[in-house]
Amino acid sequence: MSRASSSAAHRVPDGPVLSVRDLIVDFGAAEPAVNGVSLDLWQGRILGVAGQSGSGKSMTALTSLGLAPPGAHITGSIRFRDQELVGVGQRTLSRVRGSGMTMIFQETNAALNPVIQVRKQLTLAVRANRDCNQDEAHELVVDALRDVRLDDTDRVLNSYPHELSGGMAQRVMIAMALVCGADVIFADEPTTALDVTVQREVMEIIRRVADEHRLAVMLISHDIGVLEEISDELAVMYRGRVVERGSTDDVIRAPEHPYTRALLDSIPRIGHELTEFVEMPSFDMDLTSLPAAERIAEGSHS
Ligand SMILES: Nc1ncnc2c1ncn2[C@@H]1O[C@H](COP(=O)(O)OP(=O)(O)OP(=O)(O)O)[C@@H](O)[C@H]1O
Predict the structure, then answer these.
(1) What is the CA(34)–ligand 1 centre distance, in A?
(2) In this structure, is residue 143 part of a structural domain?
(3) In a domain, 222, yes or no
(4) Which residue segment(s) compose the domain that 145 sits in?
(5) What is the pTM of this model?
(6) pLDDT attached to residue 11
(7) So what's the ipTM on this one?
(8) Is 46 helix (H, G, I), strand (E, B) or coil?
(9) Of all residues in the chain, what percent carry a pLDDT higher than 90?
(10) Staple partner for 186: which of 50, 103, 294, 301, CB 3.0–4.6 Å?
(11) Does the residue 123 lie in any domain?
(12) Pocket test for ligand 1, best of 55, 59, 67 (most atoms within 8 A of CB)
């Protein structure tokens, strides 16, 4: 897969579909879980978010979706299209979640109902989010399954989730996002549980649906090597902050932040193959002593 060839360089985005500014998610611990994060998601582009466990990747995504856990004190701004989401009620958040933004998790078991056939789950998802009859819903579902290269649609539709392989279940989750008509997908470690070959296939599908459906994707991974293959931009998080962000090529070729360098040094490199996850070495630094290394000036895409 060539990230360069599939990148959105030829496209002129209208503006970010999701804009996060100065987001703080505080549970009253010594440091906020998310500590002043600013990010943009653009149609047709994949933002890879890397960082070690506990750096705030998932909390940034969950909060953007209005799913921060109880007890979180949230400040800053999350704008989805023209709608500010910080401070709005659950009703608005669940409307936006239903049709505008969705999340794909590592654990498909948590998202797919084990006792309902895939056909029914996908059809219900369509009908909850789109005004269409049963036949139209079926057509949308079949198209979405083909989009994620599940061409044996009857077999998949007649399956229960436990009858699918991990890679197939992850593709069904991506199809679910497509049939809901989502503009933004948060994919949180979607391939960590899969073997390397299947991981690559699922990543290629994420890249393709982002391109073809102009989806904005935030792809979260411990493994910057996986993100390197697929992302247009990279953001590196450390202790609740984005310590570096920029085009993937810039960040990989010339990382400016010591933490990014440590992340890159921690992955085995065999050519530029996708690598299996390798735990980050222990790393601690005083962030206040370091310059911010943000290389995407705000609005540089417009
Ligand atoms: N419900 C909660 N209450 C208090 N703190 C929480 C809660 N959930 C998460 N945190 C804290 O928020 C911080 C960020 O966690 P988060 O899950 O976003 O990290 P992460 O980078 O996604 O890590 P991982 O890769 O392990 O999922 C952590 O310090 C975590 O302990």
Answers:
(1) 9
(2) yes
(3) no
(4) 108-181
(5) 0.84
(6) 45
(7) 0.96
(8) strand
(9) 59
(10) 103
(11) yes
(12) 59
